[in-house]
Amino acid sequence: MAEGTLAQPGDVIARRYRVESWLGQGNMAIVYQAKHVNTGKACALKLVHPHLVQRKEFVDLFVKEAQLGARIGENPHIVDVFDAGVDEARKVPYLAMELLQGDTLESYLKKHGRLPPRLAHTIFEHLADALDQAHGAGVIHRDLKPGNLFLARDRKGQILLKVMDFGIAKVLESHEQRTATQIGSPAYAAPEQLGATLRSLAATQGISISQTVQASTDVWALGLVAYEALTGVQPGQYWGVDTYADLMICIALEDHPAASHRAGDYAKYLPYGFDKWFTRCIQRDATARWQSAGEAVRELMRLLDAHASDPITGELKLAAFDEPAPSKAARSVKPLPKPMPKPAAAGPLRPSVTGLPLKLQAAKATPSPAAAAPAAAPRPTTTPTPTTAAPKPTTTPIPAAKPATTPATPQKPTTTPTPPPAVAAATPAPAPAAAPASPTLLDSHLVSLIDSAPSLTDSAAVLTDSTPSLTDSAPKLTDSAPAQSDAMSQRPTRPMPPPKPQAAQAAPPPLRKAAPPPVPVRREPPPKAGAPPMPPKERARLQELAMQLELDSKWSELCDVLRKLEAAEPTSERKARYLYQLAIVLLDRLEQTDRALELLDEALDKNPSLIEAFDHIVAIHEGRADWKKIERAYRKMLHRHAGTEDTALKHRLWFKLGEIYRDLFENAGAAVEAFRMALRSASREELIPDHLTLADLCANIGQLDDALASYQAVVRADPQHVDAYRAIYRLSVDRGAYDPAWCAAAALAFLREADEEQVGYFQDYRPEGRIQVKSRFDNELWARHVFHEDQSLLVGKVFEMMARAAMKAKVEALRQRKELLALDPFLRQDPTTSSVPFVRTMGWASRVIGVTCPALFVRSDVPGGIVAVPTEPPASVVGQSLLGGFSQEELAFIAGKHLAMYRGEHYIKLLFPSAEELRVIFHAAVKMVMPDANTPRDVDSRAETTAKVLRSFMGPREQDGLRAVVRKFISEREEADIGRYFRAVEYTATRAGFILCGDLGVAKKIIAAEPTLSDDPLPSDKMKDLLAYSVSESYLVVREALGIAVGQE
Prior knowledge:
- By secondary structure, the chain is of the alpha+beta class.
- It is built from 40 helices and 13 strands.
- The strands form 3 sheets. Strands 1-2-3-4-6-5 form a 6-stranded antiparallel β-sheet. A 4-stranded mixed β-sheet has the order 10-11-13-12, with no helix packed on it. It has a 3-stranded antiparallel β-sheet with strand order 7-8-9.
- The longest helix is centred in the last third of the chain and has 24 residues, at 793-816.
- Residues 17-301 form the Protein kinase domain.
């Protein structure tokens, strides 16, 4: 094994680690997946690049990393480095560390946009724990960034944060020549990390900067990570600059803007009080910051908790929207979807030309304030040349997140685009259409010619490769749009005019960026395929040559070198990176656009995840106003990703394709299908705007049933979406559907958002007293239209089979403890003959919902309402609270909710009113059928004991039924989430009570007054569920089945 050679699969390092595969590499090291030859334990093995072993600072880095791990001690949130040394055969230092499966926070944010509040809560708590322990040991990370935070999972499948690469920043900072690569992550660096020269310059302006790093140095970076994680903005977006020199000036000398101001439209995701918290994180004076990560995170958690809580208490007050919904006129203006991904507000860092900070250069040239203020660099827009026959619309980027829209009268959508607001102080004249200006090769954050693989500090130590599989088929859209249907003429008695559309607001034109000047040069053919592997020294020589050729502006020769490097790469992903860089040179420097398109397409074929290449393809076709090729590019990209799990990308592709069909081709049918495909991959945050878009389009083309279904989906996702209720009311009126219109009017009246017409319609058909039903529930109606969506039928069947035995076991236990309640038979009342209104209501309700009424014992001497008693046959005791003072509607709600709990699937919740007890019983049922089944450790022993007890109370028929249901459950591979089932049963019972009373106000009053168990949903959550259910298709079916629908004969 020669000294200085790369490790290959099968090689043994330091006589104990066998290399299995390559994981990644960075500027300093290569990371392999390996196994210990004796124990077989898998690990990540980091080896210094062979050509760097002679540089002492890199060898010292490895030693330091291992020493820091020992100094900090064990922590579940810090990557464990458990071995270090030098491989004698290669003379190369190595580190052995734990092998993780997952993704970095940086990659997560690229895929999902931002962190959900609950996940953010977990991640920052873990980060604070890791940093506080490290700081307590005297270790400062100095390179905290999303790329150094790894999201793994523990043995229970819960998210577990791992902090990587402690101590690297200090070694890199000690170099005399500090470049963007060497300093690590300048966008997250605190002022005290930027050196003495800048500290002296700040002192001349009266700004104090600490001379040494300390625990609050990491707090600075923590604040920036939190800002990016909660908003989903691009890395470094807060500073708004594109050079390293300007970044240093912003950090050390300029005022820091409020986070909410810099975040723009994304500020709505920041909790109230975040600006104050963030400002304290990035104080230049280190002593003025939060003095520990734990202190900072505790305050951030308090802000997040306050932001997330929105209970409906007292008189129901629903939160206002984050931004007003645009008017119909504004929504009818549909721009062309922008290329992906969302452009960053600032480009990659690059060195200034003269070596002086650019802002200081500008100050010397022009002392005016305008000259010193940097303008943001937006994505360029394109304006096609109009023709006399059929002019195509001007195209502008669309925002990635779609705002909520206000429903309006159906009309044909226009295709005139609305330009987005400008993002700079001045707006220059429009420039000719061009592809997006790209960073130079030296500046590219995608591919560095020094080393094209991801940085080691980002995730190479722990990431594994994954190649998406492609299929040969993609969903096909129809090319024909359905004809617009006429609105139905029948309406309720009252006139119901549609709401008037609001006036649209004009927006200023966007900034544009001119293309670089053309450099004519000859076109070189690619090297021959099948060349032998390139030696490492030759690769390094070509990389250095490529950098020099770029500095010398020798673009043709640079293309030759890039082709050679691409041909030598072993993987498709790395080949794609070089093809992308080659295309950028052809596009920006040589003006060979067609050839650049070919290479960009080839790069995407090799690596469909290279979204930047697709971004350029769309921009080029957009500049040429070639709409058909744009449509083909999107469909081809979807074909590349068929069968992959990248739902975020699929959603964005399908949604933008829908906008192309809608706005450019005016093919509404194809647009509807594309938007529906987008909904299949939509995240929780995208569901509402996507459904609103689809509903608006369906309403415009006369598909009123589909539009109504989309608005109902909006209400399910957000029961506080008032405009969706208004749209349901309007569409129902247009269809002549009286009952859905009345239900929507009832919801609006309850929310105090109804207009005069809606209030009148609600009051005209509001039932007085007990509802007059003409039919009754059956099991199918319960299962399909009353059960909550989270209620598992199979889990319910398991509990139904266990309920009788569980009741007998509980009665026996109470008898042995002498706690069994004795019921006086003289206090029992018959619902058919009783004079007590509630007892009679219980009899009526039991007949309507198809549930056998339990034995009712009236106790005027016992306070409270109604409570179930564990006896056989089942019984309930009615307390003095229900003997007077309630209206018929209120008694109907109480009776319906209580009787719903006597269904077979629900009864066990009355006997054991906690989710943990039901969890034990469920796993006991599984144990009774499959004794060797794996059950959670925390309930395993209790489940076995419970199974033995319950088996003694079950007969052969009951055991046979249980056996069949459990085996069905196992075969279906369904998840047994008992906590979710427990809450779903409560939601279902609440729905049953609401159906019988027919009034949201009555339901709210009773829900607020009744006791709530620890595992039950909050009263506010119950009301949100009822609000959504009150306009759902299921509730409408129930009303029709009972014969109580408005307008029903």
